[in-house]
Amino acid sequence: MEKSSNSEFKDMSIYWSVFFLKAAGMWLTSDDKEERHRRYVYALSAFALIYGIYVNTIDCYYSWGDLSHCIFLINNTLCILLGIYKITILTTQRMEFRKIVLYAQKNFWHSNYSGYEKEVFVQCQKFCKLWLVTVSFLTQASLAGYAITPIVLNIGKNESDRVLPFNMWLDLPLSLSPYYELVFIFQMLCVYQIGIVYICSDTFLCILNIHVIGQLRILQYKFLKLQSPTKTDLIDCVNEDYLKLKKCIRDHQALIKFCDMLEGVFSLPILGHMVVFSLLMCFDTYEILLADGPLVSQTIFVFHMVGSFLHIILFTSSCQGLIDESTNVSLAAYSSWWMDCPMNKVGIMLRRDILIILLRTRRPCCLTAGGYFPVSLETSTALMSSTMSYFTLMRESSAKEYICPHENITMLVLLGRSTISSISCVQDGPKNGFRYPIRSFQKVTKRKMTGVLKEVNHDVSSARKIEKNKSSSNKDYALSVTTFLLKIVGLWLAKDRKEQRTRDLTLLYTVIAILFGVVVQFRDFYFSWPNFSDCTYTACNILSLVLVLLKLSVIFVQRTKFFGLVKYTYKHFWHTNYDYNEMVLLQECRRISALCIAIIHFCAQGTVISYVLTPIMANIGKNETDRILPFNMWVDLPVAITPYYEILFVLQVLSLCHVVICYICFDSLLCLVNLHVATQFRILQYRFSNLGNTSNVYSGDDNNSWRVLEFVKKCRASFEACVQQHQSQIMYCKMLNSLFTMIVLGHVLVYTILLCLVGYQVFLADAPPTRRLIFVFHITGSLLMLLLFTFSCSGLIEESMNVGTAIYSGPWIDLPMNRIGTSLRKDLIMVIVRSGKPCCLTAAGFFPVSVETFTTVCNLFLY
Q1: pTM assigned to the model
Q2: Where are the transmembrane segments (predicted)?
Q3: Where are the alpha helices (DSSP H) in 290-440?
């Protein structure tokens, strides 16, 4: 944090964000000449904003009664008011804003990085460029729409009938040359100036957020580097690492102070943006779907809505990353070598300082909306919900022709007041496992943790070792069935080149089968339009195929990480090196896993059989030319005639079976792994609560010094092994979340729609009983699968937090107050503090998955 820039630093994202701020008159100046230029540009921005307010207000006054046009003008006015609000806040906070910029230039934006730090910084730059290009493109497209609309509308009109981008309502011949051209250019210059003011502060804030996240990742890397395994002198090693720790703490303090500075300057602009956002999205949706306007004018709102949506998603993602990475500092500190430090003066101080870090990082750094609520990914979901609520109200009002001026004004006032209350439901605190685009921290943990990532090397010898260990888990029904399904899909380990070629061919067949199903269903949807019942039936199939493609694509892209995870699981979870009590816990887990897999497979097979029985039952009593297939083909062939019918029937059934296998195999594996990880936490709890095996070695009332010493040493050795296991399981959960988080998000999103469509097919659609039977099994299986999956995720959360309770239930009260006993007590406190933050799976960082997720999806389904 104390680095200074000795070499010139250039970055496109920073350059362009600074350019936007300069164009708005909000950047820093170094002399009087630049200050005069800044004030001139600031005055132009203020004039453009005031002019925009004037034009839209006057137009709204003269157009009152035309709901569509008034909403168009109100949308423009809200954007302008939001720009005025942001630029006013930044002007009043100009000195604090200057401190933020100078600090970032000195400590973030320089070239004095090396190794891993440079890698993190480069990834920050890449994501900042992506953010800037996205925002700039969508803003330019939206603003260009204001110019293109009148140009297109004026085609074929007389000169006296030409229209401007915005109505002026002046007693002047503005449609005639040269007045028309002058006013047109003037209005578009004002539009672009307003657009720059609208995005400049948000663009710069998001870039600052991303760079702070990068600095927090670099800080985590520094904490993990506190160990020096190559040194032989442990005392010198501790002294050197304590100096490094003190520097890390100073860096951490500086970053916390910087986040507080960001909060002080940008908190109110964020609040204004959150309050106005739902209204803007609502008005955009109305203009696109309901307003009676020209198609070219709707492109303005299409780009504006897409830009606003991506803007809020990327911005809240950066805020979520700030929350997650600030709390991950505790994980990095906890993962250092503190438990191996000697109990001298420096070692005790190092432990105490790390404990203070763990306590401090329980309160994350975050940005808030005026102090009302922390901004995170859940904020975006709350905003989307409020947007849909407002749009529903407007649609109903438009349908009932509520165009009374006073009622419209009252509705807008009520909407504005209700926005904060609708957003404030966002829960405080971080959510674990956010997948921020900068993923390099995983590479650090790969160098550190005890073998978690050493198994990632995907070679033949490791696969053979796993096959040998596999004999110990042959009695695990759930594992055997899940492994068999994954082999059928073609994404599993291979023990030699021949088997790998078989896997590759199987995977190719899987892709062909899925693509065949996709083509058949999309063609059926196209030719069935507009039969609502048939289209709904086909949409259910299409959504299932989309979900299968998502799962298969994610696992295939990350197959190296997936195979490494499987190898680690075989080596550390699915083995027989347990004592009797631990084996009891493992057998209980296997029974629950077998029950879950059996339920999932029963519903899946019932769905497949129903798809096959439907055409068989429908063909009873029909002629050969009238026979139907499980899925309509829509090809210019006599598909109902032998042998075409039998061939296509077999092909469709084979494709169906393979799609269903792909649909359930990854969910079965994830549910199985969740249950086993939760069991590993239970085993860890058992080991923590039985440190030193007090029943056989030592009683707290025993004064035998030899037995006391033996007991303490055994406790210390057991404790160190348990801490290493705890660290490994935490990192395993992070890897599991990074691998499956996008699948979980897609699963939850698609299930919400899929359950609705399936429910329609079961209860409302005019369909034969056999088709209803398909969706009875489908909806039952989907609900049970979601319930079992969320149940396993809740178990993971609970058992990871119960580690602290198990430690408290252990024999720590019997430890003597000698040097080792005192050290062990302090280390136990550190583990208890760390276990207060649970391990969990998240839906791409939007929310942690638990049983509450199941109830939420069911509530949406009932609506």
Answers
A1: 0.64
A2: 41-64, 70-89, 130-156, 265-283, 295-315, 506-524, 536-557, 592-613, 647-677, 739-763, 775-797
A3: 295-334, 345-360, 377-399, 405-423
